[in-house]
Amino acid sequence: MAFNINSWSTVSSSANLDVGLLQDGSYVGTPSNHTYIHAVDTLATIAAANYFNTVAGELHEYDRIYVIGSDGIADMRVTSVTFNPTAVSTTTDLGLGDVNGPAVATDNAVTRFDGITGKVIQNSGVILSDADALTGITSLTVDNINVNGNTIISTDVNGNINLTPNGVGINVLANAQVTGLTASRAVVTDASKNLTSATTTATEIGYVNGVTSAIQTQIDNLIAATYKVDINQVTHGLAAGNIVYSNAGVYTKAKADAVATADVVGIVIAVADPDNFTLQFSGVVSAGLAGLTNGAIQYLSPGTAGALTITKPTTAGQVIKPVMIATSATTAIWWNQLGVLI
């Protein structure tokens, strides 16, 4: 639309005498001030060349025109007025520190530049409250870290994301999910301290629920309690390491013959005094042994009653017992009976 004279007003007039614009954008002298309001024309239309030709006779260079258009408010300056032909030019470039903004803005909203002139600002949805709380940010990038919604991303493809608490604090991760792991598996660290999936399943981990001490120690203690017994026998004449058999309720050194072979009951692992000894029936023996050959199989000696030998018995049909497999010079695993010699 064209210029509307009914919307034009002169607020103050100084005849624009001796007005000049300094290098820093400030003025000397006093320009005339006008207002113009148009409900239909936009600021861009009003700022076009020759829009104010109708009132060229009232205008001088550096005059100010406060404009309210259909899409905003602007403070314009007359840059030139010529006649024959009549031409009026204006600008919204009002010098250092002067900007143009929207007609309506949001309270506490962070302003931002509109375009590249550095003179026009616009509203935003980012709110900086009077309590210094910042809200409305949809994505935030700091150095190489981008926070976008529920996602934290390293913008450096080779970068690490380190969550380091201040002082003695801890990192609390609620409902954390680590991709790349196998579901329902125990999680361990590899040689590089990276989280990885173990072969142990969640069900298997559940089997040790409620454990209050070392499982292997409990097993060893259970074996010891099950297969060991303290015996009181007057003048038994036995020493730790002897293989014994029971004959009419009396424990005697065993010998690799038909009777002893059939009745072997255990090995003496400790002698408290001449009338007390501890007998172990089978399992891991870690006391009362000495001079074993690691890895060798021990048999009941046919020549020395109660003694072991690594020489295998040779009598066909003889029961091979007891058999002990040495795991060191002083420890072995043994059974009362393993099989029949053929």
Short description:
With 342 residues, the chain is mostly beta strands. The protein has 4 helices and 28 strands.
Strand order of the largest sheet: 1-4-5-6-7
Strand-pairing-aware structural class: mainly beta
- Average residue-wise pLDDT: 83
Q: Output the radius of gyration.
A: 51 Å
Strand content: 25-35%
Number of domains: 3
User: Per CATH, what is the topology of the largest domain?
Assistant: Virus Head Decoration Protein, Chain: A
End-to-end distance, in Å? 122 Å
The global form is rod-shaped
Low-pLDDT residue spans: none
Number of strands: 28
For the record, the CATH architecture of the largest domain stands as: Beta Barrel
Number of discrete helical segments: 4
What is the CATH domain class of the largest domain? Answer: Mainly Beta
Biggest beta sheet summary: 5 strands, mixed
Give helix % range.
under 10%
